[in-house]
Amino acid sequence: MRFIKTLAVASVVTAWMAGSAAASTLDAVKEKGYVNAGVSGKVIGFSAPDAKGKWTGLDVDFGRAVAAAIFNDPEKARFTPVAFKEAFTALQSGEIDILTRNTTWTYQRDTKLGLEFVGVIFYDGQGFMVKKSLGVKSAKELNGASVCTQAGTTTELNVSDYFVSNKMTYKPVVYESADEASVIYDSGRCDVYTTDTSGLAARRSTLSNPKDHLILPEIISKEPLSPAVRQGDQQWSDIVRWVLFALINAEELGITSQNVDEMMKSTNPAIQRFLGVDANYGEYMGLTADWAYRIIKHVGNYGEIYERNVGPATALGLERGVNALWTKGGLMYAPPIR
Ligand SMILES: N[C@@H](CCC(=O)N[C@@H](CS)C(=O)NCC(=O)O)C(=O)O
Q: Angle at CA 55, nearest 5°, toward 53 and 321?
């Protein structure tokens, strides 16, 4: 009797394993030979093609980091531009494997839409941009203004909350895609352009005269931007989450794309564990012992990714601010790899 019971349990477990193997995103990704990453495709610094048509940006580099961990080749990430209105369905339908698209982690997207956000890659907040000629210095002076917002974003609700709570009115001018935004704002159909401040900096850099525009000091919301995956494949969400944590931990440990080979000889046990020198931590996620080494070797750590895409030396010119490591007064804090 006892034996039969054990058998029954074993067959249930086998069936479950077979089922989960069939549904494994990692297997499907390996089979097709690349990770398909959904990106905005139009936000400089986050995801946009450069002059030579090569994808660049912080969100793009995150997709490359996932590909590096799996394939030891960052070029095995493909990028699919997805508009906000189709981004979540593209993920749910399996068209894309990850969504890495300046997307805010919110309660409803997490619970109602069946997405899983893996962790914050960029702490942002919503702001306002106006033409300097308008003479406005603070968002408190925007009563009666026409405000450009993008359909389907968190922006619409935030701006409404802000004007209501400050007892002001505004005229919403809603556009569908980022392409329309510059045209609408540049042509004067709205007085104010509002989105995440990183998006404002990106947008400003594309306007005909960036210096004619002012980003106002008020930050009216929390926009924790996070990569997302479908709910229901725990191994896949672990992989994508720990790729993000590896990027942040590498910066904290001082491991860069430049010194990672040297670091393989480090006597620091945390660095040895991270690089898989004498332990195979990758196998718990279905990856190899050197999964984190691969990421840093090919793509660099979080700080390197930040600096080359959105940092002070780029067109966006964003200081690290709250996106600095927790050891440097910021919010970037990743659970340890041990
Ligand atoms: N983070 C906010 C807003 C993001 C947002 O508005 N992004 C815009 C501008 S930064 C965008 O991605 N536009 C490009 C596009 O839709 O293709 C959200 O998740 O709703």
A: 135
